[in-house]
Design a protein that fits this description.
This protein has four helices and nine strands; from the N terminus they run βββαβαβαββββα. It is α+β, with helices and mostly antiparallel strands. The protein has a single domain, classed as 3-Layer(aba) Sandwich (Glutaredoxin). Strands 2-1-5-4-3-8-9 form a seven-stranded mixed beta sheet. Strands 6-7 form a two-stranded antiparallel ribbon. A hairpin with a 5-residue loop joins β8 and β9. 36% of the residues are buried. InterPro entries: SCO1/SenC, Thioredoxin-like_sf.
């Protein structure tokens, strides 16, 4: 699945309200997780695990930009994304946009997400979704993906290995 098999261009809005495309992240590695701010368990756990892995990388993490792409743009406005991320996960940039733009980027990354009824949620729904973390190289080309079950230490090892190989031009 190397090359363009996963991922492609996008035009979204970051959590500061600025329009961004994949070109804004070229020149560094991008670590992408899809989720939503009303997520009760999977997303907070994943964002924490990714943050811990980046902490373990130390200075090597400076060239890796973590991105959190919503699957629920109707609720996840830039302000909502910023408030959700800024204290517990400040490394992340939240990305949102119109439903059509989110659906296009989800399709490019082969991410499943669907709205299901949830009477315990104030808006009445939940958004089960794919829980993979994607690594893109400095040209925003797919390098690898990692399951949600991978712990922070192993994720840090894999990120170190993949980014080092990519820098050497082995991929």
């Amino acid at each position: 699945m190397k090359g363009n098999a996963i991922g492609s261009g996008f035009a979204l809005t970051d959590h500061f309200g600025k329009s961004v495309t994949e070109a804004d992240y070229k020149g560094q590695f991008a670590l992408i997780f899809f989720g939503f701010t009303h997520c009760k368990l999977v997303c907070p756990r994943a964002l924490t695990r990714i943050s811990e892995a980046l902490d373990l990388l130390g200075d090597q993490a400076a060239n890796i930009k973590p991105l959190y792409v919503t699957v629920d743009p109707e609720r996840d406005t830039p302000d909502v994304m910023r408030n959700f991320l800024e204290t517990p996960w400040p490394r992340f940039t939240g990305l949102t946009g119109k439903r059509e733009a989110i659906d296009q980027v989800r399709a490019a990354f082969k991410v499943f997400a669907t709205k299901v009824a949830d009477p315990s949620d104030p808006e009445g729904y939940d958004m089960p979704h794919t829980a993979l973390t994607y690594l893109m190289d400095a040209r925003f080309q797919y390098l690898a993906h990692y399951p949600d079950t991978m712990d922070a230490a192993r994720l840090a090892q894999e990120l170190c290995r993949e980014t080092a190989q990519s820098r050497k031009g082995l991929k």
